[in-house]
């Protein structure tokens, strides 16, 4: 009981007692139910170790007392955090504006729900993804675009954290989920060239938080090799002036579109490594009073939902982002549960989808 004074209506001090309740504990449940603290712990964490009757009585007592298990204590008992982490490839303001990343998260989240885990989104900490990994309270990690020689790999290995990469570098030490980015870009660039386009601007992806000195296996470089290979087949060489770099947001796509339209010689086709950037370019053209594809063709990559909603609909590479997230999460949970992976490296199919945004010349 806690006493304190307040004034009555006559201005005189009066004492009033207020009962301070405390949060019920396992000890309280044990006392009320007649079972040991160990049995109470088993009822919440491992019911198979006590009888069904004992478990039911303990849980009923806990409910009567208003007991809610402390998740931190429970996780400590289980030696698990019951959460997996998704390392955002860029700062939050960029990562969550990219519908492709959101679809990957959707796929991961569905699997987390199936296993009763939460999903923790982990952006770079103080601009360092390594610092974020060191302090992440998770049982495993999924990354995007990670390569095996990166510093964060050694941090995860030191922490004994299982990990899977999406759009990363296949390696014996690192399970991965990918498409053949180089071949996909070769095929869509060949489609652009077959449509008669030669004045082309490419919009590349910016390097993400996992960028390392050895960038030749990064997604932007794989895709660029595919574009260059297709152009070389018709005797074209990609010039530096033909390549622009954008963050994967619609806002930055509009900025890039305006930059392209400000050129003295407007390209006949823009080929973007991201649908959301390509859509931004289309909007910039519409704002300038230009028609797509009559005044300029635009091609993207990802086949996000918005690519079939924009007018005209976007020609693109269909890569199943939700399926990438699902496969990566399923593989990670098998690793967490000490199960054998069916396949360390999963390369899933893509499709080239031609729509109205690409016009033959």
Task: Give a written overview of the molecule.
- With 361 residues, this protein is α/β, with parallel strands linked by helices.
- The protein folds into 3 domains: 2-78, lambda repressor-like DNA-binding domains (434 Repressor (Amino-terminal Domain), Orthogonal Bundle), CATH 1.10.260.40; 83-178 and 322-347, Rossmann fold; 181-319, Response regulator (Rossmann fold, 3-Layer(aba) Sandwich), CATH 3.40.50.2300.
- The protein is built from 13 helices and 14 strands.
- The protein has helices at residues 26-33, 37-45, 52-65, 71-78, 92-95, 99-115, 129-135, 151-158, 181-194, 219-233, 250-261, 275-287, 321-336; strands spanning 2-7, 13-18, 83-87, 118-122, 141-144, 163-166, 176-178, 200-205, 243-246, 269-272, 297-299, 316-318, 345-347, 351-353.
- Strands 4-3-5-6-7-13 form a 6-stranded parallel beta sheet.
- Helix 8 links the parallel strand 5 and strand 6.
- Helix 9 runs parallel beside helix 10 and helix 11 (250-261) crosses helix 12.
- The longest helix is centred in the first third of the chain and has 17 residues, at 99-115.
- The protein is elongated, with a radius of gyration of 28 Å.
- The chain starts with a strand and ends in an 8-residue tail after the last strand.
